[in-house]
Amino acid sequence: MTNKLVLVRHGESExxxxxxxxxxxxxxxxxxxxxxxxxxxxxxxxxxxxxxxxFTSKLKRAQHTLDIILGEIGGEAPxxxxxxxxxERDYGELSGLNKEEARERWGEEQVLAWRRSFDIPPPGGExxxxxxxxxxxxxxxxxxxxxxxxxxxxxxxxxxxxxALMMYLDKLSEVEILDLELATAAPQLYRFSDTGDVAEHRExxxxxxxxxxxx
Length: 215
Known about the structure:
The protein has 215 residues and is α/β, with parallel strands linked by helices. It has one domain (4-190, 199-203): Rossmann fold (3-Layer(aba) Sandwich), CATH 3.40.50. It is built from seven helices and six strands; from the N terminus they run βααβαβαααβαββ. A hairpin with a 5-residue loop joins strand 5 (188-192) and strand 6. Helix 4 packs across helix 5 (108-116). It is globular.
């Protein structure tokens, strides 16, 4: 099968730059984030990638990243579907706080548990397990059928929503997923076998030295 799936986290956002928990809040890209998205688009173009359909979240940092990437690739624009299921993990009461403010309020150990555990949500927010519970079924019902039909698909979303999806695709355990970090605008290319299993997964842009940020 020639079908391909590319997952790409948005470029640096205004709150990534300030080290603020973002979640479902809606800041846009920084100038650096725009450059990162352009870079990602050019790398995909150099790979000869074209997409039949695109998926993104309801948040503008992901939508803006996708628009820039598709502009860099050029050619006929694919259908774009936006859905809340692909939104970033909701950080609840952590949203809008930087890490130091959060530590002062709840303590280092508690904040670390919220950030790095699989199933412990922050107050009023989602755990990674909760995020996976909406992302993975959405993928199976809405994205996979296009891949199965032989189409090339791009998903522009967020650090945790994409980690939740990659957990399923790469068959990662609840422990293994905790070590996975996604750099901003570093595309992940998947190819599938005739049986629907992942035959290849590689990162198109190695983002050495860039902060993974907070969603």
